[in-house]
Every structure is written in C-alpha cells, then in structure tokens.
Design a protein that fits this description.
There is one protein chain. The chain is of the alpha+beta class and 340 residues long. It has a single domain, classed as 4-Layer Sandwich (Glutamine Phosphoribosylpyrophosphate, subunit 1, domain 1), CATH 3.60.20. Helix content is 33%, strand content 21%. An eight-stranded mixed β-sheet has the order 4-3-2-6-5-1-11-12. Strands 7-8-9-10-13 form a five-stranded mixed β-sheet. Strand 11 and strand 12 form a beta hairpin. The chain binds aspartic acid. Aspartic acid binds at residues 178, 197-199, 217, 219-220, 229-231, 250-253. The site of aspartic acid has 14 residues, from strand 8.
Length: 340
C-alpha cells in the first residue's frame, strides 16, 4: 500500500469513530441524508420519535430500531405486541425480527406472553448461535434471558374483536386492516378515526452511515394456530445489506414470503433503482406471480439506501409511512400504489 493510500485509509478509520466528522464530510455529497428513520403505518410517527432520540445522539441504528418499535409493542389495545388480535384459538402469538449492518440477525415466531418480541429477537441474535427460535422454545429462551412472562388475557379491544369474529369464524383478510372478517365493522378503528395495523417495521441509517432494521407483529388476526407470517423471516419481512440499503414489509405475509420481498427490494436497489422504484418493482413481481389472486390483499414495502434516500410503495391505496431525517420532520407520507 502506498503511504498516501495508507494515510487516506487511516483518516477514514479515524473519522468513523467520530460521527460528527463523518457527518460533516458526508454533507458535501448532495444526496446524503442521515441520520434517518422510516417506519410503517401511522404508529410509525410515535416509534420514529423514540428512534430519533437515539439517532440524534449518535447512537447505533440497531438500538434505534429496537427501542423505536418497543414503544408500539407496549401499547395496550394496539395491534402489535400482546395487545394484538389472537389466533383462531384465542392465543396472541408474536413474530419479530431484527438485523444489523454486519449481517447479524435474529428472529422469533409464534412467541407467547412476552411483551417485547423484538428484544427477544435481538437476544437470539446476540446470545444464541441461531437466527430463529419459535413457539415454546422461543419463550423458554426469553425466560432464561430475563424476560418476564405476562398474563395470557387478551386486551379489551382484542377480546371484543375475537368475540365478534367467533360468530362467523371466517378468515377473510381486509385490505389495509388485516383484521380479517370485519368488512363492515372494523374493530381496530381508533378514537381518532385511524386504523390500527398489525405490524410495525422500521429501518434506520445512523450517523456512522450504518443501517439496521426491525419488524414486529401479532400477525394476521384469527390466523391458524402456528401460522407464521413474513415479519420474522429474514429476507421476507426484513433485510439489511449495509453496502446497498435495507427494506421491510407489511401486509399479507404469505404473498410477501412468496417473493422473498425485502431481499428482492434490496437486490433491485443493488441494480441501481431508487428505494421507491425498487419497492415498486417488487410489487410488480408479486403481481406477475399472482395476478388477480392479490385483488383483495395489500402488500407494501419501505426501503432506504445507503445515501439516505427512503420511500415506500404499496400494491393498493391506503398505505402510509413515517419518515424522519434532516430533510423530513417525522411526516406521515401516503405511499404511491400500483392499482389505481
Ligand atoms: N405482515 C404481517 C403478517 O402477515 C401482517 C401485517 O403486516 O399487518 O403477519
């Protein structure tokens, strides 16, 4: 290595330990925009606010995406976490995944009675030799790692929804609600008139320009016992490639799994597409594969690239995402969609 190259490399390494220096350098690139956090649906605004406290204080994206979605996991009568709708047998089962800039990842599926599945997913990543733990084994691992067993009881809203659902016991997903069976009487309409959603996915780019992502859900309401959606499946519900970008999904999990959606979005960004174009291309892939079978379903993606360009895109109208960065003030943005 020439001494000049060595000097440049050493300077770069030194700069990476001082985020403010790196940020100042990066600011010369007109398209850079970080730190940044983007997350799905209306609840994303509240989750982003928490994540931003971390990003703005030069904390790693991994901490931001964990702490951000934890806020929503703890909300009673929300659709993510223990307040969510149960499966058809009356059990709330939770799926979550997390991934960092080094390709480390962890996930849990069908986890019961634990408030923060995202933190259990992180513990799987950091404290086990595995990527994914499910069901009783995931719960056993959580308890062994200091998580506390919560009561089985459903939240008041979920109990109401479940009793209503039991009358017909139909599994009929609804676009943008994912609360199956409530076309004329959606149970998760909040007092402010907004709808709850079953998933929050979050992507962050920190001041060291490192990416991480998280995804947590109670899954599709009234699913079969044991059903696992896209959210805990690395590549489907979430994918991070620190060279290129990150993506996450929400909506009808089975359709997202079929195209390994989040990985596909990142690969489209690798080919040079913008985050929005990459999300759109993944939606087009799903349509090519499934055509009319998607008519009554929603799928949507969010994505961010290494420079801090971020966007979402959906199959159907009604998907929104929250975005905070030096250029965005935690706005809730209505995503473009394919089927006009
Ligand atoms: N993708 C989630 C699942 O299929 C549901 C959602 O996004 O609301 O479990």
């Amino acid at each position: 290595m020439t001494s000049r190259r060595k000097f440049i490399l050493q300077s770069a390494l030194a700069a990476s330990s001082f985020p403010f220096i790196l940020k100042a350098t990066a600011a010369h690139h007109p398209s850079t925009n970080f730190p940044l956090v983007i997350s799905t649906w209306d609840a994303g605004v509240k989750a982003n606010a928490k994540a931003w406290e971390f990003l703005n204080n030069n904390k790693p994206a991994l901490d931001a995406v964990e702490q951000g979605v934890m806020v929503i996991e703890s909300e009673v009568n929300c659709c993510v976490g223990l307040g969510g709708n149960p499966d058809r047998d009356g059990f709330v089962t939770l799926d979550a995944s997390i991934m960092n800039h080094l390709g480390d990842c962890g996930s849990v599926a069908a986890l019961e009675q634990i408030e923060h599945p995202i933190s259990v997913a992180r513990a799987v990543m950091e404290k086990s030799p595995h990527v994914m733990l499910v069901g009783q084994g995931a719960q056993q691992f959580a308890l062994a790692n200091g998580f506390i067993l919560k009561p089985k009881e459903l939240s008041a809203e979920a109990e109401k929804s479940y009793q209503y659902w039991l009358k017909k016991s139909e599994y009929r997903p609804i676009i943008n609600v994912e609360n199956n069976g409530y076309k004329n009487n959606p149970p998760n309409k909040l007092d402010n008139g907004q709808f709850n959603h079953d998933t929050i996915a979050m992507l962050a780019l920190d001041n060291l320009q490192n990416l991480s992502g998280s995804c947590t859900t109670s899954g599709m309401g009234f699913k079969y016992r044991g059903r696992v959606g896209d959210s805990p499946i690395i590549g489907a519900g979430l994918f991070v490639d620190n060279e290129i970008g990150a993506a996450a999904a929400t909506g009808h999990g089975e359709e997202i799994i079929r195209i390994v959606g989040s990985h596909l979005v990142v690969e489209f960004m690798r080919q040079g597409k913008s985050p929005e174009a990459a999300c759109k291309a993944a939606i087009e892939r799903a349509i090519k594969l499934r055509g009319d079978k998607l008519k009554d379903k929603q799928i949507a993606f969010i994505a961010v690239n290494k420079h801090g360009e971020a966007a979402g895109y959906a199959l159907q109208k009604g998907f929104s995402y929250a975005l905070q960065s030096p250029k965005h003030n935690n706005e809730l943005i209505e995503a473009k969609f394919f089927w006009q």
